[in-house]
Design brief:
The protein has 3 helices and 2 strands; from the N terminus they run αβαβα. By secondary structure, it is mainly alpha-helical.
């Protein structure tokens, strides 16, 4: 799925949540540069950090859009 996301939305920040933190799958996922890979059971602090990071990356483009003249 991440490979397909990268083909159409190369700059989209992606957080992977997995129930199977297999080293082979993790290595494959890392080839497509996810922002984070989190394993279940999820640590709420890590999830919050991931969401805040994604939102922080989204803000600059949003502020540029709102600053554009109408």
């Amino acid at each position: 799925v991440l490979k397909q996301i990268r083909q159409t939305h190369s700059n989209l920040p992606v957080v992977i949540l997995t129930g199977y933190p297999d080293s082979g799958l993790m290595s494959e996922a890392l080839r497509f540069t996810p922002l984070m890979i989190l394993a279940k059971p999820i640590d709420m602090g890590q999830l919050l950090e991931a969401v805040q990071t994604v939102l922080g990356r989204a803000r600059p483009s949003e502020s540029r859009m709102s600053a554009s003249p109408s």
